[in-house]
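Table S5 (text form). Sequence records supplied for joint modeling of the two-component complex.
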Amino acid sequence: MSPTRVVLAKPGLDGHDRGIKVVAMALRDAGAEVVYLGLRRTPEEIWRAAVEEDADVVGVSVLSGAHVALAEELLAERARAGVDIPLVIGGTVPAEDAEKLRAMGVEAVHRVGTSLPLVVDSVLALARERTA
Amino acid sequence: MSATDTTDAGIPVAPVYAEADVAAGLAERLGAPGAPPFTRGPYPTMYRGQLWTMRQFAGFGSPEDANARFTFLLERGQSALSVAFDLPTQLGYDSAHPAARADVGRVGVAIDTADDMVDLFDGIPLDQISVNFTINATAPIILAMYLVAAERQGAAPADLAGTLQNDILKEFLARKTFIYPPTPSLRLSCDVIEYAAGALPRFNPISITGYHAREAGCDAVQELALAMANAIAYGEALVARRLAFDSFAPRLSFHFATTMDLFEEVAKLRAARRLWYRIATERFGATEPASGRLRFFSGNSGTTLTAQQPLNNVVRSTIQCLGAVLGGAQSIHVMGYDEAYEIPSEEAVTLSLRTQQIIALESGVARTADPLAGSYFVEALTDELEARARRLLDELDAAGGAAAAIEAGLPQRWIAESAYRSERELASGDRPRVGVNVYASENDDAELGEMFAADPGVAERHAARTAERVAARDEDGCRAATEAVAAVARDGGNVMPPLIEAVGAGATLGELADVFRSAFGEFREPQLW
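The corresponding structure-token record, covering 661 residues in total, follows.
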């Protein structure tokens, strides 16, 4: 079985990248292949990279509070591009916004305080579901 | 060795310390408070003479929204202001820019024009209230707008007190609000410092910051070394302009984190002052004592605060604020207990301010300068932190100094590896965190009171107002003033005087940031990951 492929990115203008780099390192240690696109990536850039990299999961991190607006843009672009790769969002997301994001179509939401092993397991599980 | 036998930075700690654990020559390493090498603090009487400045970092939404929060804090006894700007303002986009839409007014206030700055400080006398600005890539533009706002109030530049963060080098390490490549970015920072050295005698034109790298993951020793390396880089760049070190060094200020390991943090802050004194005198040949007298602001640590059992954060913040006070801070921000969820509610910021006031007025710790001096443990730890930081500073020097080391990705690796290590220690339980990996409970969110609610309409309203103001300005005058900025950016000279003219003529932050984008290009971070 080929390793899980994950594309990670920071959308919007937020530059707090401690969390996403930690997740990248943990996913690599768990055997995944991770491509981190870096900061200030647009929805177009993120989904294009996801397709080019043959990603099983796309993960984004938002600590600016702009998660709902950015998720709207990401989901609209995913639909427009006809991509079916699951989207995971992590960051400072209040509980009610986490519900809202899931209802909008984000496959998994990891709020601040989620343990690192849980985040890794969730990403790997989404990848398995997709390839199963 | 178990985690409890070492400090947060991994320094081994003995069960007990005695006189023999402190190296000879302590009196020389300490000096008196207010005297070289300033280990014991920058001022002779410390808080007996003047309490630290209580400066809660605040700002969101429109200038009116932020002004209301400022007034709220001042009414509750806050002694100064600290402005949080939204990300579009930090990154040189007006509120109408397509890249800005999601972020307008979110992590701070949206500022497009000098008129916005006037509105931000409406009713707040700028010659009486000191103001801190957490701004870096667009710091020259924001300073220009502030000077215009002060002038319109009738405040004299000589009376303006406050601090502009303006430490762009650390933005390449953490938080990442850079726009231009490192070299022109450093030039803009130095233009501000050079301008302020003549025009703004009470203003700190830079706050050299270890805090952000620390929050991004590095440890206390690395925080010290990185702050000092950046300070050296600014000092060298300014000296290269043929400025005398003593002409600008007294107005350099610093910014450190204060996190949970109380004694290590106090030792770090004491070591910072001694390190800077030695750098100022040995490297730069400072002759004015004030050039080697380190003054700092401390923001407590957001990354130590937890989403789980959020009221526990009140206790954490109290310990951190105490650490900053015992370490001799000149101004302090205490985090809100709800910061893992949102920007702080009114209830949370009030409690942060009350935390400072209780420590200042009830605990008695403000009575005497540097109360931990002479503690065998604290002195041994201060010496050890200084020695370890000097070794790391040597590594950064060997890598060519701060800018070259950042370009090579050296400190970025320190930060990421430390962040990953601490996260693994949290997951394994080696690093205890109450409510997270010990004494955890269900349904943590129920402890939170009312949370801050962002206003989704702010982007549209603010963009519309800027459009009205742009339509009302004298277009020819504004264009000429903006072109004067472009000429100085291109041909050399200090950007501050033409920037002040341009913002006064109505040029927007986004327009002026675009002038610099055209002149300098935009920086794209190399992917080390």
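Note: Residues 5-115 of chain A form a domain with the Rossmann fold fold (CATH 3.40.50.280).
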